[in-house]
Inverse folding.
């Protein structure tokens, strides 16, 4: 700027409005090689970072966001939101810290899910465990469990948690033989 007086080449760096998001995403992409950091909780734990990239939150923070979206309250105000997800992000982090990240049914881990290379309905590679609502539609701390995408889809609205546990061992054995194949490949 000081040399020619023209600022044309620098105008793209200043975008009013959603500039905060733009800056965070670009910092994320340029800095990801040296250090990733969740924009939700600030964790730098690489075990909680999406391998697929492009998601600036950790598995826990993004999982919370997904619950908000699934509860159909995303566009509503915070007061309404609080009723559908009955705990805060901080409480969810505390819950996550005392509940190991393993699918409550087939016992798969995030890492194994990634290795299986399963695609979700929108074509994305599945990696982070989601949340199952065990007994009711309620997102409350005594009604949630880690659950993989395939188990969540299999259970759907059709099987109870108890019924799902009947078929879970079969799924577990399928994953184990696939993972053994991945390890050999
Ligand atoms: Zn986070
Ligand atoms: Zn599972």
């Amino acid at each position: 700027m000081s040399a020619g007086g023209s600022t044309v080449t620098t105008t793209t760096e200043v975008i009013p409005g959603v500039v905060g998001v733009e800056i965070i995403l670009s910092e994320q992409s340029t800095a990801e090689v040296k250090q990733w950091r969740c924009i939700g909780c600030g964790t730098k734990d690489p075990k909680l970072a999406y391998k697929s990239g492009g998601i600036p939150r950790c598995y826990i923070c993004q999982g919370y966001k997904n619950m908000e979206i699934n509860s159909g309250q995303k566009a509503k105000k915070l007061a309404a939101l609080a009723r559908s997800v009955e705990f805060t992000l901080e409480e969810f982090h505390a819950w996550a810290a005392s509940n190991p990240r393993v699918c409550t049914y087939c016992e798969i881990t995030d890492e194994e899910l990634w290795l299986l290379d399963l695609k979700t309905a929108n074509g994305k590679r599945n990696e982070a465990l989601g949340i199952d609502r065990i007994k009711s539609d309620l997102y409350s701390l005594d009604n949630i469990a880690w659950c993989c995408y395939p188990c969540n889809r299999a259970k759907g609205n059709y099987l109870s948690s108890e019924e799902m546990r009947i078929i879970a061992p079969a799924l577990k054995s399928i994953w184990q033989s696939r993972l053994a194949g991945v390890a050999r490949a």
